[in-house]
Amino acid sequence: MLGETSGRTRLDPKLDIVFWMLFGAEQNQALLISLLSAVLRPSVPIEAAVVLHAQPERLGVDDKSIALDVRVRLASGEQVDVEMQSQRRPARRERALYYWSRLYAAQLRRGASYSDLRRCAVILITNFSELASPRFHSRFRVRDDHSGEVLTEQLEVHLLELPKLRHALEQNDEPSLAAWGKFLAAASDEDLETLAKEDPVFKQAKDALERLSADEEARIRAEQRELALIPDDLEFAATRRLARAEGLAEGKAEGKAEGKAEVLLQLLTLKFGELPESVRERVTRATAAELMAWPGRVLSALALDDVFDR
């Protein structure tokens, strides 16, 4: 979740299901075209983009293994696969190549010519740093190691790393793309409002995100997805701490409470973002009964106070 809007928490576009519902919606085609244009910088303007995937509500969003990618066919016949990744997953780079090969191979029908194949691109947007380079936007193609000559223009993989957005803003070599990075990474309503005043497309994006945030079904899907993506290693670490605490002759209750408090803090951070210090202190000092009751309220809570004040 992102911030408060008229008493309602705004959905976070860095969450893959929210990103998909936002940019995959037919009524938001102008936003998708603007984002694709900023990344791909095509020589000919993108006039139309058709989203090829199924509707989000048909998917099991509580399945953390599912990849919520937006597959797009442009008017030129080129195809693009866009995915927001908020958490690290195994074999990310191999998956990017698989996405590309899936798009590329699907073009060729029986009796068709290889010359009919059109360029395909994959765009990965991550909420974590993947490469050693400080660049926000990296583009990969097939090149010769010695001459640098490009083997083909048919394959492109783009990586946008949101933690490196500051570098893009300092370099100012891709201002349109940096602006989209600011939209996705916005930490407050004020940040989005500033963008909306600078460019009409971000006014549309802000309004679209607000409409999505007001949709109760979309909010439920987002919350289910958010909870499903709680890292397995967090749960494992908490279990180990609790088991260790239960094995101690002294401090047994204290150790169990510490583990429960840490898990609750992680849940609250995933849903509401960075927590005030007062909330952290309240959870740390909570009674055993409170630590039993509060986690069950997180899913339905619209604000932090809803978790604690009942």
Fold blueprint:
Layout: E1 4-5, E2 8-9, H1 16-23, H2 29-40, E3 49-51, E4 70-74, E5 79-85, H3 92-106, E6 120-126, E7 137-140, E8 155-161, H4 165-171, H5 175-185, H6 189-198, H7 200-214, H8 216-228, H9 232-246, H10 252-272, H11 277-284, H12 288-293, H13 304-308
Parallel strand pairs: 5-6, 6-8
Antiparallel strand pairs: 1-2, 3-4, 4-5, 7-8
Helix pairs in contact: 1-8, 6-7, 9-10
3D architecture notes:
The structure is a single chain. This protein is of the alpha/beta class. The chain folds into 2 domains: 4-227, no CATH class; 231-308, no CATH class. Helices cover 47% and strands 12% of the residues. It has 13 helices and 8 strands. It has helices at residues 16-23, 29-40, 92-106, 165-171, 175-185, 189-198, 200-214, 216-228, 232-246, 252-272, 277-284, 288-293, 304-308, and strands at 4-5, 8-9, 49-51, 70-74, 79-85, 120-126, 137-140, 155-161. It has a 6-stranded mixed β-sheet, with helices on both faces. Strands 1-2 form a two-stranded antiparallel ribbon. Helix 6 packs antiparallel against helix 7 (200-214) and helix 9 (232-246) runs antiparallel to helix 10. The longest helix has 21 residues, at 252-272. Mean pLDDT is 84; it is low at 248-254.
Q: Describe the global form.
A: elongated
Helix content: 40-55%
Strand content: 5-15%
Q: What is the end-to-end distance?
A: 22 Å
Major β-sheet annotation: 6 strands, mixed
**Helix and strand element order:** EEHHEEEHEEEHHHHHHHHHH
Strand order within the widest sheet? 3-4-5-6-8-7
Weakly predicted, low-confidence segments: 248-254
Number of domains: 2
Estimate the mean pLDDT confidence. 84
- The total count of helices amounts to 13
The structure class reads: alpha/beta
The number of strands is 8
Radius of gyration: 22 Å
